[in-house]
Amino acid sequence: MDDVPAVRGGAQRAGVVSAGHGVPIESIELRRYRLPLDPPFHATWDPRPRTSFDSTIVVVHAGGIEGAGSGDAMAGFAGHEELFVGQDVFDFERHVRVLDNLQFHYGRMWPLEIALWDLAGKLRGEPLWGTLGGASGRVRAYASTGQRLEAEARAASAAGLRDAGFPAIKLRFWHDDPDDDIATVAAVRRAAGDDVKLLVDANQAWRMPWDTSSSWDFATAARVADALADLGVYWLEEPLHRHDYEGLARLRERGRLKIAGGEGNREYADFEQYLAQGSLDVYQPDVAWSTGVLRATQLAKRVRDAGAMYSPHTWGDGLVLLANLHVAAAVSNAPFVEYPYDPPLWTPARRDFVLSSPVIADAEGWVELGDAPGLGVKVDWGAIAHLAA
């Protein structure tokens, strides 16, 4: 893999020289919370409406300070705390190797790495985007929708998002017949106008455990891609199964719109295949779900060198969003980054319920991450105590 990112100021490298700081990890705990959703949120990628929103927060203590991260349930981690307690907070290369070992056997473990980066930033007194070598903590966001809405309602929603200042809007397919979703995109284009970039997530790369439907074949994906290109769609996300490297490359070679994907791939080797076969124009691995922070920065460099874009997926609570935004601020070369926002059922208040204040995009779609250390936010432990699961 490539070198780790330069630390702010260029004097050291995160996870290697920084390991000499000698700040031992004192304790790790998992805290679980559940926010009831009334009315339910019926996500495009899930046949079952969601009546609650779960958040597992990893809390790491060292030097009288705590770091926090989230993004997955951390299944299988309990009982392995001793692999980290007593180790140097800043030894990220070592931590990533252990986390990768654990997630081979259990669930996704990157929320712990996020908590360690948050903690490291607080110990160093600098924001994560700065620790990773970024020049600015200002990120342009696109509005990412997720609720199942029919064409007329989705078009009205898109016009509102345009008026809120977002430069781009993501729409997600969910009908059994993709022609119904294409009709929705056409309605949105008419309502939002030509100045707003439209992004489309086909939701074909993976399935919820109870969803037995098959992914599209190449012919279907190509037909949809052509129809969306005619509507001026900027990128088509996840049009084939996540491991159909060759099929994605063939779609990309057709060149009518950008092909995006990789949001949830668990193995770094998957991205090696995408790069080797030229599968994607836009690489979207979620920091909290797919790569972690360190490997995200390594991959982003390789993606840029390959002439492609890095713009991470992010759909989770406020800690997940911030981890991806900080990494994007430091290493993304894309014009915008995902910001889950689909009012009235998916709002910053719901999305960021674990935080003392939500992450807000301004009237032109910009998010200011600021100079506060680590992720730059506080978890409001008192306010969410009654939601403990």
Write a concise synopsis of the structure shown.
The chain is an alpha/beta fold and 389 residues long. The protein has helices at 92-105, 110-124, 128-131, 151-163, 178-192, 218-230, 245-254, 268-277, 287-305, 318-331, 348-351, 381-384, and strands spanning 27-41, 50-62, 65-70, 138-144, 168-172, 197-201, 235-237, 258-261, 282-283, 309-310, 337-340, 366-368. It has 2 domains: 17-129, 2-Layer Sandwich (Enolase-like, domain 1); 138-380, Enolase-like C-terminal domain (TIM Barrel), CATH 3.20.20.
Give a quick set of tags describing it.
single chain; 389 residues; alpha/beta; Enolase-like, domain 1; TIM Barrel; 9-stranded mixed beta sheet; 12 helices; 12 strands; disordered N terminus
Describe the structure in your own words:
This protein is α/β, with parallel strands linked by helices and 389 residues long. The protein has two domains: 113 residues, 2-Layer Sandwich (Enolase-like, domain 1), CATH 3.30.390.10; 243 residues, Enolase-like C-terminal domain (TIM Barrel, Alpha-Beta Barrel). The protein is built from twelve helices and twelve strands. Strands 4, 5, 6, 7, 8, 9, 10, 11 and 12 form a nine-stranded mixed sheet that branches. It has a three-stranded antiparallel sheet with strand order 1-2-3. Strand 1 and strand 2 form a beta hairpin. It is globular, with a radius of gyration of 20 Å.
CATH class of the largest domain: Alpha Beta
**Proportion of β residues?**
15-25%
**Total helical elements:** 12
Name the quaternary structure: single chain
* Number of beta-strand segments: 12
Helix content: 25-40%
CATH topology of the largest domain: TIM Barrel
Radius of gyration based on Cα positions: 20 Å
CATH architecture title of the largest domain: Alpha-Beta Barrel
The separation of the N and C termini measures: 39 Å
Poorly predicted regions: 1-19
Shape: globular
CATH superfamily of the largest domain: Enolase-like C-terminal domain
| Class from secondary-structure proportions | alpha/beta
> How many structural domains are formed by the residues?
2
Largest sheet: 9 strands, mixed
Mean of pLDDT = 94
Order of helix and strand elements from N to C terminus? EEEHHHEHEHEHEHEHEHEHEHEH
